[in-house]
Amino acid sequence: MPAAGTIRRGWLVGAVPAAWLGVALCWLLARPSGPELDAPATAVAICAAITVLGLTSLRVLGGEPTEPRTLRLTAILAGVWFVAALVAAWLGVAERTGRSPGSVGAADFVRVSGATPALIGTGCALLVAVFAVVWMYRPTMAVPEAAAAVTALGLLIGPVTGHLGQQTGGPILVAVHVLAAGWWCGALASMALTVRGRKGWATSLPLFSGYAQWCVLVLFLTGVVAAFLELDSLGEMTSTGYGRILLAKSAGLAVLMIVAFTQRTTWLPGARAHRIDEDTSVRRALVEVVLMAVVIGLAAGLGTTAPD
Questions:
Q1: For domain 4-304, which CATH number applies: 1.20.1630, 1.10.287, 1.20.1270, 1.10.10?
Q2: CB atoms within 10 A of CB 172
Q3: Which run of H or of E encompasses 161?
Q4: pTM of the predicted model, to two decimals?
């Protein structure tokens, strides 16, 4: 099915500039207080990592993460995650030391505060890539749940050690928020890449929708609590760069939730009844994926902008 295949590859092209658009909005809203230089690479790393999370947890949606095609996708995206995370860590060290990226050495990663979580996340990406490549040749050894756990660790290590993670209860709040967002976005992206035919969508989409509604609820609740912890007053939502990015991210999530709800009212019943073909389902999924990427870009910028 060339049309669907072309669309599936297209999201990889479209999600990256969409994420960078979110980062660019952060710069417009918060300059000169943030975000940091590593935000664009961080946004790419997050997009790749959450898709890997979705691919490695496809069994929840009735898929099979150990199929050769899926393992190849996992290996490729884990590789993208590794490279992007390494670049982000490198640029982050350069920013914190006040040096040019070209003059940053390996010793700087040890000395600079905050570099260790970034390196752990990079190591997780490399480990998942190695897992996927080995499993391509030794499918009987495949344990996708282990790869999903390592991916979750790689996604969490940075946010839980960030500024919100220093608050009482902050690490748990951040972990729940990140995992809910990561699975919601990553699962839909992985479906767009792997689900085949009307029957496949009739199986996977209802399962996804059932879990996704809980992810959205968790995102909303944890987001509200996080805003109260981070900001001293509602006025900071407009008077500080961090607050303006947080407001933009919240607005982006609200738009995304409305789009998701609107799509589900027509897409889910049609897919369940086998009335919607594969191409249409892929296109609908990719609309949401691109919107998600913009919000991910905003989240990446928010994570590298210090509260004023």
A1: 1.20.1630
A2: 12
A3: none
A4: 0.91
